[in-house]
Amino acid sequence: MKETSAARRRYKARKIPTIQYPIRPPEIAASIEVLYLSADKSILDSACSPFRDQIVTSHIHYKPAILAMARLTFQGRWNIHNERDIIRVVSFPPASRQAEWDKSLLGKWDSRDTQSSPDGISFFIFDPSCDFSSGRFELLQEEFIHSMITQEVLTLNFNPYLKIYRRIDEPEEEFFERCMEQIRESFSQEMNTLQDTIQRQQYRLKERLNREVREMENGQEEESNPEIAEIKRELQTLEETRETRIKEFENSLHSLSRDQEIDIMRLSRNNAEVLRFAFVWLPYTEFVIQEIDRRRVELIQSF
To answer: What is the pTM of this model?
Structure first.
């Protein structure tokens, strides 16, 4: 045990990484904001737990990336005004390529997780063909804006009959109820006309029925009078017709309320505002691991 512990201490004293990388970052224009993202300790603890007792030494390696933040404003028809903040953290591309703005490396960004200088003994991994000049940075910012204009859209659901749109945060059923209320109001006159027409027909039939009953002179049962029986059948048929017509009317209103179409609203150049555009170094941790008869290296993304 003592020999193992001594060997482990000797391994941990080792300070040279397995592959030589620059210990200083490349020169970046003073006008460009430079940040260092802090390593997430919980990610590292989880990643190295299978070989924690075999770690000989570790080093922080930084890879270059771009932090881009923009506020997108969609506005126009139907008095729509919707703002959306976009954050992208993407790898810094070599000079011959564009940044992959649709492949953000971070799901969220918190400025509290950044620092102004690298951690301890650290090294920098980057493509020698990368251009870190201010001119290149300006071009990348224009690329970012262009990608937002071409990729980001506001999808709107609207009712084509009422010409009203579903609010961004409005649940589908609430939108349906809102449409149903307005459509019922729009068709209230037609519904009243339908009800009134059938009620007048019912009233006339009931008047006929009352007259027939009053005119009976011989005490004959109502059910044996063919005229009275016919009027009762007509009243029953009219009531069934009324229920059927109202149900059909309600179904048609329901269908109009449920009808939705999709509209796409796109951005104009003036509605894409860059809030922050910075150079950021992303941390990766290299672990040297001692196995039975050899050492191996693992580079773990630490964010």
So the answer is: 0.70
